[in-house]
Specification:
Shape: globular
Bound molecules: NADP nicotinamide-adenine-dinucleotide phosphate
CATH class: Alpha Beta
Number of strands: 10
Strand content: 15-25%
Structural class: alpha/beta
Largest sheet: 8 strands, mixed
């Protein structure tokens, strides 16, 4: 009995991805801070498929101690896939940034993700059928005006995960490391990043359900990157950041 872990499962892309994996009969470990939302999702999944085991674990993943503690709490389960999806953005010119928000963003988007990725790789990289999927952004490949620090956090996610994919392949390890890079998606993201609830000014907005399907497409493929590009098309690609094996 193995599990798919999804961080940031209480809303948006993580929530819809949990439903999508549940429809495939995957046991799930759902992580976020809002326990009630995770329990509501667990009830919804029970209605879809009562045979699935769903475990709810709450943690603030911008706190390194809670990040390590979360990983320890998953130790009693056999894991198949770990999806680091929890993340948020901040919309401001650099001089006007709220530095406590920025610090939390770096801690969550980068520090928490790196710790969880590393622990999972250490324990599971030699296990056949395992995957690590880290959620970046189209902003992890192109810097966007007024989203510079957020994009830099996502460049880190893309570069770290692509580099890990190269490393795993060169070592002949069976684990696959992948990057999902969505573009504008209708979730709580815009409200958290810039206080905007109405996304009608962004006609190319995808639904979280569509992005969850992209997540499954990436999960099913042998490619490393699943990117919503500048033409709003979802494409599965080989790593995009330059990479060299020797310095
Ligand atoms: N929506 C977009 O336009 C878009 C585009 C490109 C990439 N992305 C990326 O997609 C991922 C998912 O975002 P989303 O769009 O689905 O946004 P969302 O609806 O705001 O979901 C974010 C999730 O992260 C969790 N989270 C936030 N802070 C956390 C913390 N400190 N500890 C633990 N969990 C935390 C939230 O849960 P709690 O609040 O319950 O903790 C929530 O479940 C993010 O990495 C985001 O950067 C989004």
């Amino acid at each position: 009995m193995s599990y798919v872990v999804i961080t940031g499962a209480s809303s948006g892309i993580g929530y819809e991805s949990a439903l999508a994996f549940a429809k495939r009969g995957k046991n799930l470990i759902l992580v976020a801070r809002r326990e009630q939302k995770l329990n509501d999702l667990k009830s919804t999944i029970f209605e879809i498929n009562p045979a699935i085991d769903v475990v709810v674990l709450t943690a603030d993943l911008s706190d390194s101690e809670q990040v390590h503690n979360l990983y320890q709490r998953t130790k009693g389960y056999e894991l198949e896939t770990w999806i680091n999806n929890a993340g948020f953005g901040d919309f401001a010119p650099i001089a006007d940034q709220d530095l406590s928000k920025v610090e939390n963003m770096l801690l969550l988007n980068n520090v928490g993700l790196t710790i969880l990725s590393s622990l999972f790789v250490k324990d599971y990289s030699s296990k056949e059928g395992t995957q690590l999927i880290n959620v970046s952004s189209d902003g992890g490949y192109t810097v966007v005006d007024n989203f510079v620090t957020y994009c830099a956090t996502k460049f880190f996610v893309s570069a770290f995960t692509e580099g890990l994919a190269h490393e795993l392949r060169s070592k002949g390890e069976p684990m696959q490391a992948k990057v999902l890079a969505p573009a504008v998606t209708e979730t709580e993201f815009a409200y958290v990043a810039m206080g905007v609830e109405d996304l009608s000014d962004f006609p190319q907005t995808r639904t979280a359900e569509e992005v969850a399907q992209f997540m499954l497409d990436l999960y099913d493929s042998d490619k490393v990157v699943g990117l919503v590009d500048e033409t709003n098309q979802f494409n599965l690609k080989n790593p995009l950041h330059p990479y060299i094996t020797k310095i």
